[in-house]
Write a structure and sequence with these properties.
It is built from 17 helices and 18 strands. The strands form two sheets. It has a 15-stranded mixed β-sheet with strand order 9-10-5-11-4-1-3-2-16-17-18-15-12-14-13, sandwiched between helices. Strands 6-7-8 form a three-stranded antiparallel β-sheet, with no helix packed on it. Helix 2 links the parallel strand 2 and strand 3. Helix 1 packs parallel to helix 9. The longest helix is centred in the last third of the chain and has 22 residues. The protein is globular and about 65 Å long.
Amino acid sequence: MSAPEDRLPDGLLLAYLGDDFTGSTDAMEAFTAAGVPTVLFLQPPTPADLQRFAQARAVGLASTARSQSPAWMDAELPQRFAALAALGAPLLHYKVCSTFDSSPAIGSIGRAIDLGVRALRGRWVPLLVGAPRLQRYQLFGHLFAAVDGVGHRLDRHPVMARHPVTPMAEADLTRHLAQQTARRIALIDAPTLKAGQGASRLASLLGDDGPVVALDVLDDQTLRAAGELVWTQRGDGLFCAASSGLQDALAAHWRCRGWLPAQPSLPAAAPVDVIAAVSGSCSPVTAAQIAWARTNGFAVDRLQLAPLLGLSIEAEAEIQRAVAAAAAALALGRSPVVCSAEGPDDPAVTGFDALAARAGLPRDEAARRIGRALAEVLRRLLQRMPLPRVLVAGGDSAGEVTQALNLDALTVAAGLAPGAPLCQGWRQGRPVLQLVLKGGQMGAASFFGSVRQGRLLPV
């Protein structure tokens, strides 16, 4: 920058492409809570869409890139990045999961970076993944995540080390990413940021190749320093790959400058009598939440997976059965939960590859059929018995459901748990449904109750 700034510039500050739907709402929550109005679109926004949300200072676009191949990315991401870059925000953000879910074959963050820099080529590509708000921490390039208050290096994490699609065998993000892109990758570590030497270290790393530069984020000090570095070194525009830690970091810097409210906050959610939930998550966190729901009066129903992978008549019968069971629960004043599995050790998870093989389906197509079935169950249930609020657990399931419900935009309505806000769904500028899109690792055991009652319940 040629001169120090004394305020935020007018117009959009950031545009982002989410690699899944749950993470997209997480990023929206982070900015909205900080006082940066944000809207998430489910398709590239038209001028009319943007006008409906003219107050927004940040715009997101959700995608399913986390579960897709590099070939799919090559076909789909360039036009999405181009559409977002055309909005003119100084930062273009590819929003990744804070557990860096990716591999060279599925959800390749490296491939997304290679495509994204074509839309907004800057002098460097910040890689910012640590998000203390979500108990994600990066130190000397290694990513850690806490479970039940206990920190784990990601390659020893009880979930991510054994993830069924993208298991994490390397906690050093620079090494993990190097398997996905040929771009030069460097690191600015926590001691350098704490010493106020981030800018000088960055200057020594810059080159014509526009390197990816990972930024350690461990605590409030490194979070704020990372945000300052990204914002002040954005040049004429910058492409970033980051978790919602980027929104947190930018907000921390802007708040320090006095450009945002001192105390971030979101409204509290009001209670509702009943909700409906569908879950395609195989996380132990979600499994504990389903167990809590079963014990506390929710009507839990498991989809039978084999029929959903078989003949269409068999799949239709299973969908009809699940809808009827959920409707019967609602008629009795109970909140239904329709799930495909309960935790990574569930036979539905451990035996899924064999089940897909018997059905003659590739694993990814079999998984999509399950996600589409969950979405269809919820869509038909809402047609039969309209509800004010629903919950979807699992990133892939969230994508299927929001598309099946024909929503075109989401905004944050209230806070529930970090990374899993209550959202307002919109269709052609009208509010139509409240929904929560919850990633597998998000929320306390009582989270399903919190969605219904609008407050955090004791674990």
